[in-house]
Structure formats: structure tokens, C-alpha cells
Predict the 3D structure of the following.
Amino acid sequence: MVPSPSAAPPPGGVPAWRRLMAVASQGVASGTPYMVGTKLLQGWLTASGVPLGLIGLLAYAELPYTLKMFWAPAMDRWPIRWPDRRRGGLLVLQLVLVAVIAAVSFLQPGKATAQLTAIGLMALILAVVSASQDILVDAYRTDLLPENERGAGAAAANLGYRAAMLAVGAGGFILAGRFGWPLAFLASAVLMVAVLPFTLTAPAVAPVQHRVASLRQAVAGPAVEFLRRTGGARAVMLLALVLLYRWPDGLLNVMAVPFLLQQGFSEAAVGSVLAGWGIAATIAGTVLGGLLFSRLGMNRSLWVFAVVGALGNLSYWALATFGGGMTGLLAAVGLENLSGGMVGAAFVALLMSLCNPRFSATQYALLSGVYALSRSVLSAQAGFVAEEVGWGSFFLLTVASSLPAFVLMAFLTPWNGRGAKGAFDPRRDPT
């Protein structure tokens, strides 16, 4: 396979394990603020007696993960070039995240409108900075890894992200149960500080051969190339698949913590099981997914893992319907996270396959931003739906939400196909 003229070769003399370690550390940096802005805030607000409907509206604070596509071109056009064009911006944004997460610990949640407004505003600021960091994390990973390491890189990024979930989820909830919620947020800020040395010493990405010369080129180039490569109708279908493939995850995640706390599980139990046991299951799912991915290929993995993901959501229906105490909790969380690890690894590999390395930052931001809609706009009403239909019916609806993705996969990633129709092929890149 002939490499793309716009794709820089991997840094000479840098062993593969160092690249994978760098990708994993940035997964930690990406997962920490997201967990703070979702799970940790959800738990704090639930423990403070805030109504479910209002907690569900926090999903709107995730809109920056969708809208980041609009400022991603500016980050390509005006990068901070020390220590390289990706890590310079990462260092600045990670320092800002340390300050924002620490500031959240000084808020006082309650039912007063002013207090809830302040928390919502801080959640929005956190999401904006975190989404900006994700632009550079995704671009750094895509630019750093050669094609034959992208499957392992997707798994390494997922493991780093899940490690942050373990630290912020299990550690944060346990700290909150013993010492109060403010300490949980401060500890999360310390975790972001710990990432900074890894960012400073990570392998550098090679300079691009065709530097973006204008903001107009940075904005128009990625979209024009994607549409030209995929065709108008197929581009819409690909974006719809990116939007809907993990929609069941978004619906479940926004209500998982409130559901478990309302079922009578303690904060410490929820934190330990969701992050401790859940992370172990996710790591197992990521490893299993990587092994199966190498055997099944892209298309079949997307089909198989989507089925397993639907079964993970069905386990929450079983817990809501039949109970089961701690055993039922362990079974539901274990199956849901095992499937989540498999789904996540395949999904990241899918997104990377759709990007031309010349426009990696903006195209990946576009695709991941479209995906983020399923966690924000498409999932924001989940709390009101759960209140209306009850927990059992709600979780059945999350399983049904997987059906549109299967319809799209029948056209775009057929079972016997080798790759997504519209994926980037460097052999056909005219740039």
C-alpha cells in the first residue's frame, strides 16, 4: 500500500510502545474532564436532591463535543508549535482544565435557580475546554500512529480513557462518600496535573508537508475532500451511522447513575461497581474486541459488537424488572461495560478509517462531533422519558434505539465487505 503524500511517516527511531503509551496517556487526559462533567456531576446533583429532569438537561452541556467541528479548523490554522504542532495546544488546554475542575469544587449545588445556573455554566465551560482538547488528542493520535498500529492505538486510547473512568468514577465516588464531593473534584484536578509530564515527553509528530495556509482552506478543504471521496448520499448515510451507532450508549449513560442511586445502592457501591468492576469489564472487552477485530475485520466487528452492546443495555432492563441486589448490579454493569469496551474500540477504528491524514484534526472533529449529538441532543430528554414510562420500559427503548444503525450498516458496512464504503484509501488520494 502506497502511503498518502500528505501523511507523515512515524517518527524515526521511536519504538511502537512509546507511541502507544503516549496515546494511552492522552486517553486519560480526555476521559478525566468528561467523567467530571457527567458522572461526577450527576452523582453530586442526585445526592443533593435535584430532580431527575433537571439532571438530564446536563446533557445539553455536552453540545461543545458536537460543535467543536466549527473551531477545529482554527486549531489547524494557528497551532502552538512548541513542543510540536499538536502537543503545544494540548499543554495549554490541560493546564486550563486543571483550573476549571478545581473551581467546580467550590460550587454549592441545591435547588435554588442561581446555584443550578452556576453549575450548568461551569459544566458548559468544562465541556468547551475538554472538547477543544479532544480535537488535538484525536489529531495527535491520527498523525502519530502508522496505519498498522491504529487498531492497537484505538485500544490503547480506550484503555487510557477507561483508566480515567476508574480513577474519577471509583475514586471520586468513594472520596465523595467518605470526605464529601469537593474533595472528589480536587482529586480529579490532580489527575490532570499528573498527565502533563507525559504530554511533555511524548513522541513528536512530524511536520506536515502541505501546511494549511489560510483559514478558508482549513474550513473548506476537509469537507470538500470528504464529500468528493464519499459522494453526497453516502456521506449523509455515513454521518448518520456515526450519529446512531452508539446512541444506545448515550441514552443509558445519562441515566445510569440516577437509576442505580434510586434503586437504593449507596454512593460508595455505585462508584466501586461502575468504575472498579466496570473498568475491569471494559478492559476485558477492549482486549477481547481487539482480538476479535483482527479476526473479523471492520465490518463484521461493527455488526457483532452492536449486537453485544444491545445485550448490555438489556441487562439494565433485567435489573430494573427483576432486581437481584448486588449480584444483579454486578451482572448488569459487567455485561454493559464488557460490550462497551468492544463497541468503543471498533468505533474509534471506524472514525480513523474515514479520515484523510491531511485533514485529520478537522475531519475527526466533524465525525466525533456528530457522534456527540447522540450523547447530548438525542439523549437530553432521557430523564423525562424515564419519569414518564418507568425504568424497565426506558431501558427497553434504549435497546430499540440500536435498530437504525443496523439498517445503515446493511448498506455501508455489509457483513461480507472489507471496509466501510467511503473509508479513506491512500492509494486513491489525489492530494
